[in-house]
Amino acid sequence: WATGFKHTPEPGDLIEISRGLYQHWAVYVGNGDVVHVTLPPGAANRIKSVPTKKATVKKEKMKEVVGDSTWKINNSLDEKYEPRSARIIVKEALGKVDKRMEYSVIRENCEHFATKMRYGKAVSIQVSGPISCVAVVKTKKG
Fold first, then answer.
1. Which of 39, 59, 111, 117 could be bridged to 43 by S-S, CB 3.0 to 4.6 A?
2. Which family is annotated (predicted)?
C-alpha cells in the first residue's frame, strides 16, 4: 500500500484505495486521472438501510480521490482473466463518465465497475470475502 505517488500507474490499471472497513476502486486513465463510481454525499452511511442506490461515474484527479488514504495498483485478477488493451479500458471508462447507474453493495459496486472496465467482466473479490457477510448481517438485523 502506498500513501504517496511513488508508484506510477499505467492507463488501464485498477487502483484499490483503503477506506478502513472497505476498499474503493477506480480505473487509472492517464494524466493523473481516475474514473470511478461515486454515491451521493452521505449515501455510504445509509447503504445498510437502502441496498440499491443510484450512483454516478466520475472522472477526477487520483490524488483528490485518494486523499489521505493508502492505495495500490491492483491488477491481481490478471492471473485469472485476460485484461483488455489499455486503449479499450480507457476508452470504455471515459465513455461512462457522467452516466448514472444502479449501485448495490452486493451486485454493482465500485469494484464491479473497475473490473468490468479492465476485464470485460464484473467481479468483486471484496463481496465474496468477509466484509460482504458483515454487510448482509447488518442489513438483515437493521
1. 39
2. Belongs to the H-rev107 family.
